[in-house]
Amino acid sequence: MIVLGVHKGHDSSAAIVKDGKVIADVQEERFSRVKHSGNVPIKSIEFCLEQVGVKDINEIDFISSSWENTPKELSIVFDLADPYGKTGSIAKQIGKSILGKSIGSYKLKLPIYYPNYRLKNKSKFVNNNHHLAHAASAYFTRTTNDKCLIFTIDGAGDEMCTSIWMGEGNKIELLKSYYKEASIGWAYSIVTEGLHWIHGDGEGKTMGLAPYGDPEKCKGVLDKYFPVFENEKLVRESNLGESFYWTESGSTQFHFDEAKEVEALITKYGREDIAAEAQRKLEETIMNLVFGWVKKTGISKTAYAGGVMLNVKLNQKIWYNRKDLITEQHVYPNPGDSGLAVGAALLEYYKHNDFKGYEFNHLYLGPDYTNDEIESILKIRKIKYTYLENPSKKAAELLAENKIVAWFQGRMESGPRALGNRSILMSPLKAENKDMINAWVKFREGFRPFCPSLTFESRHDYLKNCKDEFFMITSYDVTDHKRDKIPAVVHVDGTLRPQMVQKETNPRYWELINEFGKITGESIVLNSSFNVMGESIVNNPKEAIRCFYDSGIDALFIGNFYVTKD
């Protein structure tokens, strides 16, 4: 069985599941180059179909959407309804009777050069609740199918902001949901907007700034925006007004008037302290919710999705404070809306098939390029290059010389994290390397931290009380004896957000880190996404070359080819 998952909205995406495995998953922004693109994911759908060898959309068993109501544009793409609608049909008839021709009234229509994705059997298109699709992404990527609590927490979707589910076998059952009265995500995003960062994009900056502040200096000033849970019960609602939105370049940004209030608080208390208080409130609120439901149900296995779960410090707090309450904490590694296509596809697939667990151990689900394709692009641009049988060894040597390396290999990662296939790398051994990459390559705020990739075998040497972490979705405290040895990847609060790399999952990247370890004694590298601030992660070799030459990167390893600026 083949199921195509489609999400049209903030972070539009498409994914395809064949026989229970996610074969492809890609965000439309990687093709359009508009970050958080909300356009119809036409290119993403095209890529997904190619990955399973499908040329006719009607060969697909089901198309599963992430919304209860079909976005108008998807109705047109898949030919699900009369594009004129009822009112338009009447106008059309009147026009014909009076003028002898149709005047029409419906403005949206696909250009003829778009792919033909018209469905013959309209029942193949299935609508789903937004938060249920989030829940499915978390539950159906677990290794087992036993009873599990699922928490989906985001801004809002299908009139849900915070939802609690129970998964078991093939079923996901809603236990409780909240709308604006308990939008934890919106509360945090209001602070982000108050800091003059984009709602739905800049929350990671708020999280990164928070450790520089002291929440005690302004404790309680953000209370009105966050709901309060005592155990599993909501005892005080969020106090939020009307929500607004603004669309720019195909990306939607949400807004609240309360951001002006936060702006005034920032003037009074300072950016760092307000960010710290927002992080404290987020962690306190969600831990009360999660631990309350675990106590109420007695279910110790938990799974999480929704954009709020991109907050790695929150995930660490839950893990470090779990005591004997939680035995499993599975955060879907692409938990924001760009992961909804996977959730929708898996949800529909397991309506028809038994779920027995899924070894979901990588996100290398995007496009890749052969050496022949890469070499052709280099030759056309008259770029000098060297072919290397072992690019990992050469890259490790350059990193040991404190060079900045761009690493473009294999299939692009899905989700917002670079996991060693579209990465910018540097040695973590010097503290100033963080500032160099922020200033010379990423062109972003100097306080923002960088994550490390490390060999799976060395994880306990660097991390305290860690579980297996392959996706940079949870931070951990660094071990005492390593903190001063890898300062470029340790945040000001003594934490780091790791990617553990297994040789069998990404052999070329594992070999690079291992070689760096042989040279320096540290099997860990600084890893940042291959892009500059405000742009999507590079998808194809052309974009990689442009980013390389338009930044302070020293060397580019692209497939088996090695390029420098000399």
Describe the structure.
By secondary structure, the protein is of the alpha/beta class. The protein folds into three domains: 2-79 and 117-126, ATPase, nucleotide binding domain (Nucleotidyltransferase, domain 5, 2-Layer Sandwich), CATH 3.30.420; 142-331, ATPase, nucleotide binding domain (Nucleotidyltransferase, domain 5); 371-564, DHBP synthase. 32% of the residues lie in helices and 21% in strands. An eight-stranded mixed sheet has the order 15-24-23-16-17-22-18-21, sandwiched between helices.
Q: Report the CATH superfamily of the largest domain.
A: Carbamoyltransferase, C-terminal domain
The portion of residues forming beta strands comes to 15-25%
State the oligomer: single chain
CATH architecture descriptor text of the largest domain: Alpha-Beta Complex
Helix content, binned percent: 25-40%
CATH class of the largest domain: Alpha Beta
What's the number of extended β-strand segments?
24
Largest sheet: 8 strands, mixed
Count of discrete domains: 3
Q: Find the CATH topology of the largest domain.
A: DHBP synthase
> Which structural class should the secondary elements be placed in?
alpha/beta
How would you describe the shape? Answer: globular
N-C termini distance: 52 Å
Write the layout of secondary structure elements.
Elements: E1 2-7, E2 13-18, E3 21-27, H1 29-32, H2 42-51, E4 62-65, H3 72-77, H4 85-99, E5 125-126, H5 130-139, E6 148-157, E7 160-168, E8 171-178, H6 184-194, H7 203-209, E9 228-230, E10 233-236, E11 243-248, E12 251-256, H8 258-269, H9 271-297, E13 301-305, H10 312-320, E14 328-331, H11 340-349, H12 371-380, E15 386-387, H13 391-400, E16 405-408, E17 422-426, H14 432-442, E18 451-455, H15 459-462, E19 476-477, E20 495-496, E21 499-501, H16 507-520, E22 524-529, H17 541-549, E23 555-558, E24 561-564
Parallel strand pairs: 1-4, 4-5, 6-13, 13-14, 16-23, 18-21
Antiparallel strand pairs: 1-2, 2-3, 6-7, 7-8, 9-10, 11-12, 15-24, 16-17, 17-22, 18-22, 19-20, 23-24
Helix pairs in contact: 5-11, 6-8, 6-9, 8-9, 9-10, 13-16
